[in-house]
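Below is a typical protein record.
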Amino acid sequence: MAGLLPLLRWLLPVFFALLSLPSLAKTEAVPEAVLNVANRDIATLRQTALGGTPEMRVKRIQERLRQLDERDLSQPVSRTRVTVEEKNGVAFSIGDRNIFILYEGDLDPEEKLTLDDAAVRVEQRLKLAIAALIEQGHGAVVLKGVLFSLAATALMMVVLWGIRQATTYVLDHLQARVLSANENARLRWAAQGWLLVKRLAQVLLLLLWLSVAYLWFTYVLANFPLTEPLAERLSGFLLDMLERLGEGAVTAIPGLLTVGVVLFITKAANDVAGNVFENVYLGRSLIPGVHRDTAHATRRLVGVLVWGTGLAIAYPYLPLAESEAFKGLSVMFGFMLTLGSAGVVTQMMSGLVLIYSRALKVGDFVCVGEVTGVVKEMGALSTKVVNIRNEEVTIPNAVLVANPIKNYTCAGGERGALISTTVTIGYDTPWRQVHAMLVNAAMRTKGLRTEQKPFVMQKALQDFYVEYELYAYVDRPLERIQILSELHAQIQDEFNTYGVQIMSPNFVLQPRNDVVVNKERWYAEPAVPPSSDKS
């Protein structure tokens, strides 16, 4: 027990000290309050004194100043070192009236000022504020401020009107110049961007108006003693903003120069690649793996790669590249591109498949599903085909890749696209005569190529007739309907000339005689016997 008592004497104070910690943690610091006189900051009070918080002390001080008239305020300001409740301070008085006390606890520890130094600064501010209160009470000062403000207002209205008139004059003359762009090819592009130019001019006009109004408001505030500090703050804000803008512009110059050099080199590299692939397209150069038909597409892909690399290198040197706003905009753009580009990427990849597979090209006569026509344009997302009705059909590239493509031009090569028509003739007509009549009809049809001779194929031997199909090469695939119509007319004239019926025979009863062609009629006109061919 004798050893336990000293231990308890040591543990009990520690225990009670630990119990007092939560109450200490809950104690909040007293908020500071700023003493403001005539819109001028005099001092910041932080000390609680005579039972009053800093906010209560500020209210008491302002109430004492409101009770003073101009004669009282004209008394000299004095300061005296005092000690109140064992707190050192400096008392400020106007004449024989005590106004407030600045304590050592009111000082800002970060400024590291002595009480006397802080008192000198507070005294100077208090004298300026009292002088402004006295001056504001003089009618001549107020009248002078009102007159100057009215004059500044009138000048502002004249300047705003002048800016408006000048902007209207410039826009009207610029619009007249742009609308007459048909006479000057260099200005034709301006007509497309006229609305943008007009909106930029309106934004510039608004900025000029706001600038003039800002200067006017600052000048009006500076004409009255009570509002002069506000004018100084507005002027300081404007000067500070201009200074920061100037510093930012000067700081951005090296980065902009670097971006310019990188983009210049990127453009030069892109031009070199463009010339190389243009020579491949023209047949002047040969690059393994690059076909003439895919030269332009490869050039575009290489251009995208070169410019993408150049922009990636130049991006960190942009003035706003490190700003949070620019980063947020980049993230938002990337997010939107990720969500909305799935279909676009699919179409673009399908377009590349079409180009590099060389399934079709501009000018080819193709058939895709129910669409038959000539390829007018091949884009990154879709292909345009003009059908035989002269209708422009837009087909997404993904649809083209997913469907079989019949390219009649590529099949015919330099000979052109093929068209065909079918007739059925009875077995009693010599097939050589039918062949010759169909070829003669094709040779007389306009729009069909004569250097590539038409030919006839026997498609089937049906129960009652033979199916003959005539093939011919056409120069203008889009006129297929008109050419076929004339070909049918020529076939009818040819068969009528030689007395051969095109109507296919159908028998109800078996004819008494065999439906055959006698050998002496095998080469009926206009068919040519083999002996004549040899001669």
